[in-house]
Specification:
This protein is α+β, with helices and mostly antiparallel strands and 142 residues long. The chain is built from six helices and five strands. It folds into two domains: 84 residues, Arc Repressor Mutant, subunit A (Orthogonal Bundle), CATH 1.10.10; 58 residues, Dna Ligase, domain 1.
């Protein structure tokens, strides 16, 4: 499905800025981009779109449910294009801020089951796990 069709299917008018921002989120090497990184990616691709416009478009797309905003620790908000796939577990490296998306259906099912046992239905899920790289020297002394 093209980006234009993706927007139309969601009932959002496919304007040039929306198409550009969604393409940046889809085509960039990183899965998660800040607004500044979207702006820089577009600039490198020779697209002229102001930083304020990038922020405005990201907010519009988030409100439409086409982009998901993540706030990992105290870092700037990151955005990802919503793919319709299962919720992800995000491992946030506290040393360098890198984010690793982890798909673990068994863990997600276990969380849903636990919520059900407490009388709740899971409507949406976002799990952030803050991690630090293992120290080989420390692992051997345990």
């Amino acid at each position: 499905m093209s980006t234009e069709q993706y927007l139309r299917q969601a009932g959002v008018k496919p304007t040039r800025p929306r198409l550009l921002v969604l393409d940046a989120l889809q085509l960039a090497e990183q899965r998660y981009l800040t607004a500044d990184e979207v702006y820089l990616w577009l600039s490198r691709q020779q697209h002229r779109l102001g930083l304020a416009s990038v922020y405005r478009v990201l907010a519009d797309l988030e409100q439409a449910g086409l982009v998901r905003r993540h706030q990992f620790d105290k870092a700037k908000a990151c955005y990802e294009r919503v793919s319709g796939a299962a919720p992800l577990i995000h491992l946030v490296n506290t040393r360098d801020g890198d984010i690793v998306a982890l798909e673990n259906e068994a863990l997600l099912a276990s969380l849903k089951q636990a919520a059900g046992e407490l009388g709740f239905d899971v409507l949406d899920m976002e799990l952030k796990v803050f991690v630090s790289p293992s120290e080989p020297a420390l692992a051997g002394s345990a």
